[in-house]
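User: Okay, second chain of the day. Same drill as before: sequence in, structure tokens out.
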Amino acid sequence: MGDLFSLIEEVYEVEKGTLFKQAKSELQVLKEQFLNERKSMTLTLDAIPEIDVTELGWTDVTREGGGPIDGPERKKLLQFLENIRGQDFVEKIRSISNFYDNPDAAMQAMFGEEGKTSEAQQIQVALSYLVFYKTLTKIIANFNAASAGFSFEAFLAVLMEGEQVKANTGTIADFLSRADGGTAMPVSLKLYQDGNLHVGGSFRDLVGDITNPKFDHDLMRYVAVTKRFEGQEKEGQNVNGFLKWYRFDFTLDNIFDILSRSSKHSRLCIQLPKRGQAFIDALPGIADPSPEEMEKKYAFAFTKEMEEYNKSLAEELRFDQAFVDAFLKNLSWATQLSDKFFKLYDPDAELSDEEKAAPDYEPRPQYVKRGASAMIGTGDAFRGLIDIVVGTMAQINDEAQAPRYDLDNKAVVGFKGIAGQVARRAVLANNGGPKSVGKGKISILKLYSVSAEKRERVRKLNLKSNWFTPEQSTKRYNAMSREQKIVALKQTRGWLSTEQFGLTQAMVAEVDSYSTHRVLGPNQEKAFFGAINVGRKNTQTVLNRVTKLLNESLFDIFVNVKAIQDNTYAYMAGGMQQSALADEAINASTNVISKTEEFKSTKGADK
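Assistant: Same drill. Structure tokens below.
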């Protein structure tokens, strides 16, 4: 505990005879234990405010008179995160990293060498950084759980004074940042294991956000985060490691430059047709909608499947729309988070041997394609889908006054239980079949099945001779005016065939060198802009470094809060017969009020 413990213990050893001539109170005994047994760090860590990381709690936003109203958990988190220093996202992450490395230097930079601020304000800032570390650790430790991805988005949205973007609203943005001059900056968030980062998705949706922006900027900002934990751990309460942060922008000017240097098949997205609009006009059929657009159809099909399943359940077990909506959000059907639940699609499966033998044939890798890939109904993938169902049940229980689902009952959560049947309905909504509603007429695979017309369209789109190379296309695109670029993006192979773009971690790290146009945001020299240590052990480490800021006055508050809890429990457990315990709890509460008023008056004086 450093100098603080040494000082307190020295005074205690010298003065204890004078101080404790009479019987020690419960509170005094607790203080001795607090110091002598070195338990204060655990107590203090536990005393750091706990934030409920359920996404619904943070984004409980309604409208009243046209303005947003934050939910209680978001308000609680915001009152801490607004103390994180920095004018934009990059500065805030660097501030958090610097605070971990050297809290004293970071505090000195904030408040000056003479500490020209109150003790209360310094403690307020220190606790705000500790809340950040503790809450982020809580999210990352449970990242594979249902809704955890949305919690991460919500957490960063609060840090950036913004809000999450609802699904199926015509954008690939996950949340908005308002820390850039108060404007609505769209941000797409990616979180992967370090070394496996993949920044990618629907090229069609990316183009839509750039050419028809829904917010204040005609770009898409990507924030990519990679995580690495000690001992090859991937999740759990004991994870300890770091997060690496990257950021860059796709814009109308740099999109071709960046994707011309992307993954091999990602480069096909930017190919322009040699015959221009004439080639497009002659194409049979129409392009499939984007996965985000398809998701609306999937949501409808799953809702109908659940309505049918409810008919076989007792009334108290039936699933309402709140469950359906929460499950769909946790599943994230249209995004790469749910790719593991799908079979791979072979884009060359419909080609004849003669077509594959053509000189300009270029084989393409298999991938998950919404509208063509079937969902998996067996094995580990299906068990993972059941986990999403059970996680959603737990989420509903947490939000209800009384638990609705018995999660200890295998008949509810088992493979053959209710959760398994809900997962089966999720598969039927995608795959269809004789057991699905209407024999699958509204299922995704039925709606977007391959027809002879679609097969001919795919054949023409796959002919290499119809396209300029990615390099030729980039040169032509860069010579165009802004208006011409907007038209050209909707003539590309990626737009017409709903191809996926993709950048590896190595590509993201050097993406700023791919274009002469702006790629990075403010305060950046490279896409990588910082690392943050996370984990309970790492949070403990930074807590050790700020001990002298959390002085005896703050310790007194923590000790008295614990005394209130312990003595009240003991009083109740004793049948409310031991009035001395009640007196100790009352005295402790009086001390908490006194110390809190002291901090409040100090803070008020600074203003």
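Confidence is low (pLDDT under 50) at residues 37-43, 55-67.

User: Thanks, on to the next one.
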